[in-house]
Design a protein that fits this description.
- The chain has about 325 residues and is of the alpha+beta class.
- It folds into two domains: about 130 residues, endopeptidase domain like (from Nostoc punctiforme) (endopeptidase fold (from Nostoc punctiforme), Alpha-Beta Complex); about 140 residues, Beta Barrel (Porin).
- Helices cover about 20% and strands about 40% of the residues.
- It contains six helices and 17 strands.
- The chain has an eight-stranded antiparallel β-barrel with strand order 9-10-11-12-13-14-16-17.
- A hairpin with a 6-residue loop joins strand 10 and strand 11.
- The longest helix is centred in the N-terminal third of the chain and has 19 residues.
- The protein is elongated, with a radius of gyration of 26 Å.
Length: about 325
């Protein structure tokens, strides 16, 4: 076969293969409708909860679904949780798609509804709890996991499935799903500094830290933080300031400086850069008394101009309390 003809046939086959992967017909229309539905719902993030409300001045859970669908399609749908349940087709949890509805029993009957976003998260208008109004929550949260009952399909399937946490070949490896109304997560960290050198007391100090990280629109999560640290080995009380990058799976690297209130004789208390550098890992969260808690472990080097490496190197173990803002 002549080479130009073979190349032409190969290009045609490749184009046909790519075209076959794109949703067509009803599936493409369904995906577009689902995208518009979710986009409309997200515009109401932060709106306060109001029983019976369906506008940006206040809305309840079914009001959010009603208004978002009306904005996306121009069509009105049932207004109550029970009527929405009757109007949808039940969907197995493994077949849920973004844009399906999630129904919850919070009062002994179906009483709450949200819009599924994929990956275990959903957008809804919450009436009580630590955060109210239109927010994003996760089915991994203890309360919503316990009260969830089933998914319902209002819009035809688009054939686009986002794996659930731990499902299939693309699990959600984030420390846990971000659910904030803003793009930021606040982490409060408390940990103990260890000393493993012979002849030294095993605990050399501790620290209390606060860090704010950007969690939306990025694949690596940048953050800034500050705290208070005490180290008996260097006889120092310091305020560390740092910049960090966090990765999927809970791994994090950080670098910054420190302002020392006190330091041992012979150590310069003048701030230098880098005055602190290290890496940490946080586990996926466990819920303890209603609070998300993560195990925290770091290895870092706290540097003074006149200090040797073994004196500045330390391991820290503690917990991190995350708050999605």
């Amino acid at each position: 076969m002549p080479r130009p003809l073979a190349a032409l046939l190969l290009a045609a086959a490749l184009a046909a293969s790519l075209a076959a992967q794109e949703p067509k017909g009803p599936a493409a229309d369904a995906k577009a409708t689902r995208d518009l539905f979710i986009k409309a719902a997200r515009t109401y993030l932060g709106v306060r909860y109001q029983s019976g409300g369906t506008t940006a001045s206040g809305m309840d859970c079914s009001g959010l679904v009603y208004r978002s669908y009306l904005d996306a399609t121009g069509e009105a749908i049932p207004r109550t949780v029970s009527a929405l349940s009757d109007a949808t087709a039940r969907v197995h949890d493994t077949a849920r798609e973004s844009g399906d509805l999630l129904f919850f029993d919070t009062t002994g009957r179906l009483s709450h509804v949200g819009i599924y976003l994929g990956g275990g998260t959903f957008i809804h208008s919450a009436s009580d709890g630590p955060r109210t109004g239109v927010i994003v929550s996760s089915l991994s949260e203890d309360y919503w996991g316990r009260t969830y009952r089933y998914a319902g399909r209002l819009i035809p399937a688009a054939g686009v499935h986002i794996p659930e946490n731990g499902e299939g070949s693309a699990p959600d490896n984030n420390p846990f799903t971000f659910t904030g109304s803003t793009p930021f997560r606040l982490s409060l960290i408390g940990s103990v500094h260890w000393d493993f050198l012979p002849g030294h007391f095993p605990v050399r100090g501790g620290q209390a830290l606060a860090e704010v990280s950007l969690m939306r629109g990025v694949n690596i999560y940048p953050g800034i933080g500050a705290g208070l640290s005490g180290d008996a080995r260097s006889e120092s009380v310091s305020v560390p300031l740092w910049f960090s990058l966090s990765f999927e799976g809970g791994f994090r690297i950080f670098v910054g400086t420190q302002f020392h209130f006190t330091a041992a004789s012979g150590l310069s208390a003048s701030p230098i850069f880098p005055g602190i550098i290290g890496a940490s890992w946080t586990s996926k969260p466990a819920t303890i008394f209603g609070q998300k808690v993560r195990f925290y472990q770091s290895a870092e080097f706290s540097h003074f101009n006149s200090e040797t490496f073994d004196g500045g190197f330390r391991l820290s173990t503690g917990v991190s309390l995350p708050y999605d803002l």
